[in-house]
Write a structure and sequence with these properties.
heterodimer, A: mainly alpha, MetI-like fold, 3-stranded antiparallel beta sheet, two-stranded antiparallel ribbon, globular, B: mainly alpha, 2 domains, 14 helices, about 0% strand
């Protein structure tokens, strides 16, 4: 395997490192831990966090890219394929490779449209042909399909339960290390009614997610559980691949805009005078251009630029990746103004505080005052806006891809799935499964993000905290 | 008051200039006119003459910012930047790539946009305020809790699904109204109903929740306690005090988007093929007609700035405590 690192991959890992180092730093700081402990006490937030974690897991697996090894024919130098795969692609190879000819409904054994089939005696027949992979193991799909699906689901549930037991005992073991209780003692304390952290909800959500994942994955060995699209690609695979796109847009956009928003907001509020005027002018101007139009214009121009100036040697996947990054940058440019305005207001309040005045009197440099005294005190605003923005950005991606100014059409994303499925709505019988799959995956992610964001906001917002 | 409005107007001018610079940077500096000519005429096989002709037709064969060959004042005026900027400020948007007058198109297309967005706004306001007030009236009851849960769930559904689902159920299954299209005069009503309704449903989640928060915040204030202490019934408190004061942030928040109603909604209009400004922009984006996109960006910014101005004025009208500085 020869690893390939896309730019967005690199940024994702950078982001992960930042999160980990923040967690490590926050562990020792009581004032940072307290609000998070409030979040951890909320059952709704922890359930959502588990779901988000699984999404994140899929996204990270999809962010580890490499060229797969070609089979070594005659002991020459190791050859690599030009194809770029991710860890997720390898995990679900069966989904990626089992393409049909065209549409097929979920769990179908026959294709969506009739075809002329030649029978052995030479005559032809108009019939729905059997699928290459979906339900191919059945001799008579009309008879045994329902029972087969139920049996296979039961097997999937059993595997899922085993995996769940394993995962849950790992969690119990890790928390056992911190206490003096025995294994069963930890289990008992977790099952108690009035627990500090809602362990029951956590374990239950993990169980539900793992079991449904294993059932889906096990069934997908034999069927196309969400059907196939126009070119016969498995819709379940597309939905899984879209997870990364959604996460990248939701997180990287924030990462891109944060430094600007924080620095400019704090500087404007702290220094006042002409710096304030300039920064205010800048964000008023930017925010007065309607967001969609600015994004449209910028994406159009960057497309032309890429067509004219980019090397042909850059592969399609890299090109799509760069476009994704540009989209994040532009979304960042259009969304930093709100946070910047809030931080400016907060910094204006904070600069009159006694401890800032004291620092000034001691001759602490301006830069240090901003870094040491202002920044930590506006972190709660930053934190709230990060989590609140996330779900909006995921939804925005779908809308933007629909008007062709979102991610590259070749990239898997929920917006592209909806866009291509929309054109098939007029067919009879209706092709609904791509829409349904995109809906389910998006809805779960955004709902979990919204619930989690609410808990974080409640925990961090001093106005609510006081009450 | 007049002095304040004039001052606000003057403050808008540098912002418009800034917007103009940004759009200019995007449309003429990131890609030179040569690049754009190549893109429109086809990538590779295109002669120098064809490019020159394309540029000359649009007046893009002048220097970008500074003409060193010209005399005196012409050094600045004989440039793409100057010519295009001055025209934008006079609302003369020039011609689109297929030769149509953009200003005329805009003046024709803003009315269909308005016929969708205006009823949508008012019905929406009425519905969301009713829902928000109801939820806050029954605060902390099961109705409130489930209302908020439903709101969060509705917030988590992409707007695209509301449109697709609405078109499918009402247009295709129930055959109540045509799925898409537009007509002039009274006939247009049957085309307007569906987009307005879907827009309304799509906004329920976030707006109701937001208005509920506003009303709840209002209910925690001292004057409400005083009103209750005087013995007013809870309905009276809600209608006479909470609703009225809660309307201040809601209505002033609405004022800013009033001018933007002319622009319509990109998504709704393209789904329902309404010949408004939103679908105009979408068409321009997909056919890569930069002249139109640029005009729309500028027009949108102008309308937004007017909206901000109206907001400031409405604040001073509604709430006498706001001082004019």
């Amino acid at each position: 395997m020869m690893p390939v690192i896309f730019i967005t991959d690199g940024l994702i890992f950078l982001l992960l490192m930042m999160v980990f180092s923040f967690v490590w730093y926050a562990r020792g700081q009581e004032h940072l831990r307290a609000p998070w402990r409030t979040v951890a006490r909320s059952p709704m937030a922890m359930g959502s966090a588990v779901i988000l974690f699984f999404y994140l897991l899929i996204g990270i697996m999809d962010s580890i890219h490499f060229h797969p090894q070609l089979e070594n024919v005659n002991n020459e130098e190791q050859q690599y394929s030009t194809k770029i795969l991710s860890l997720l692609d390898v995990t679900v190879t069966h989904l990626r490779e089992q393409d049909e000819k065209t549409f097929s409904a979920p769990f179908a054994a026959h294709a969506y449209s009739k075809e002329t089939i030649e029978v052995s005696d030479g005559s032809t027949l108009r019939e729905y042909p059997r699928l290459n992979y979906g339900g191919a193991h059945l001799s008579d799909p009309d008879q045994g399909k329902t029972i087969d699906i139920i049996l296979k689901s039961v097997v999937g549930v059993i595997i899922g339960l085993i995996v769940w037991c394993f995962v849950s005992s790992v969690i119990v073991f890790t928390s056992k290390c911190r206490t003096s209780l025995s294994f069963m003692g930890v289990v008992h304390s977790m099952l108690k009614k009035n627990n500090d952290i809602p362990w029951k909800v956590i374990h239950l959500t993990i169980g539900v997610v793992i079991v449904s994942l294993t059932v889906l994955l096990y069934l997908s060995n034999y069927y196309h559980i969400f059907g196939t699209d126009k070119v016969g690609q498995d819709v379940f695979y597309q939905s899984l691949k879209s997870v990364r796109t959604g996460l990248v847009i939701g997180t990287l956009t924030t990462l891109v805009m944060l430094p600007f928003a924080i620095l400019m907001g704090l500087m404007a509020g702290y220094f006042r005078g002409w710096i304030d005027d300039v920064i205010q002018y800048l964000y008023t101007t930017l925010s007065s251009i309607p967001g969609v139009l600015l994004i449209a214009a910028a994406i159009l121009m960057s497309q032309v630029y890429m067509d004219n100036h980019m090397d042909d040697s850059i592969g399609l996947a890299q090109r799509a990746d760069i476009r994704l990054l540009i989209l994040c940058l532009i979304l960042g440019v259009t969304s930093w103004t709100g946070l910047c305005r809030m931080l400016r207001g907060e910094a204006m309040k904070l600069r009159e505080m006694d401890y800032v005045q004291a620092a000034q009197a001691f001759g602490v440099s301006q830069f240090r005052i901003i870094l040491r005294h202002l920044l930590p005190n506006v972190m709660h605003i930053v934190m709230i806006s990060i989590v609140l923005d996330f779900s909006g950005l995921v939804l925005a991606e779908a809308v933007l891809s629909y008007i062709n100014i979102g991610v590259d059409p070749s990239m898997h994303s929920w917006g592209n799935m909806i866009n291509s499925a929309r054109l098939e709505m007029a067919r009879e019988p209706i092709v609904w499964w791509s829409l349904a799959a995109a809906f389910v995956f998006m809805f779960m992610l955004v709902l979990a993000a919204n619930l989690f964001a609410d808990a974080v906001r409640d925990a961090f917002d001093p106005r609510i905290r006081g009450a | 008051m007049t002095a304040y409005i004039i001052r606000r107007f003057l403050y808008a001018i540098p912002i418009l200039i800034g917007v103009n610079i940004i759009t200019f940077l995007l449309f003429f500096v990131v890609n030179t006119p040569d690049d754009m000519a190549r893109m429109h005429l086809g990538q590779k096989r295109v002669t120098e003459q064809a490019i020159e002709k394309w540029k000359h037709e649009r007046g893009y064969d002048k220097p970008v910012l500074w003409d060193s060959q010209a005399e005196g004042k012409n050094k600045i005026t004989n440039t793409i930047f100057y010519q295009n900027s001055v025209r934008l400020f006079l609302f003369d948007f020039g011609r689109s790539d297929n030769g149509r007058d953009i200003s005329y198109d805009i003046s024709q297309r803003m009315w269909p946009s308005l016929s969708i967005s205006l009823p949508g706004l008012f019905l929406g306001l009425f519905a969301y305020i009713t829902f928000g007030l109801t939820l806050s009236f029954f605060r902390a009851s099961y109705l409130d809790i489930w209302g908020v849960v439903i709101c969060v769930m509705m917030m988590s559904i992409s707007g695209l699904f509301y449109i697709i689902g609405g078109q499918f159920i009402i247009g295709k299954v129930l055959h109540l109204v045509p799925i898409s299209g537009y007509d002039t005069g009274l006939d247009s009503i049957k085309f307007i109903v569906l987009p307005v309704l879907i827009g309304l449903v799509g906004g329920i989640g976030s707006s109701t929740r937001w208005y509920r928060t506003i009303f709840l915040e209002e209910m925690g204030k001292d004057y409400v306690r005083t009103a209750r202490a005087k013995g007013l019934s809870e309905q009276m408190v809600m209608y006479r005090h909470v609703l009225r004061n809660g309307l201040i942030p809601i209505l002033t928040g609405v004022v800013v988007i009033l001018p933007l109603l002319f622009m319509g909604s990109l998504i709704t209009e393209s789904f329902f093929s309404i010949p408004g400004l939103g679908s105009y922009t979408i068409d321009a984006i997909s056919s890569q007609d930069f002249a139109i996109v640029r005009s729309m960006v500028f027009l949108g910014s102008v309308l937004y700035i007017i909206g901000l101005l109206l907001t400031d004025i409405s604040y001073t009208l509604v709430d006498p405590r706001v001082r004019l500085q």
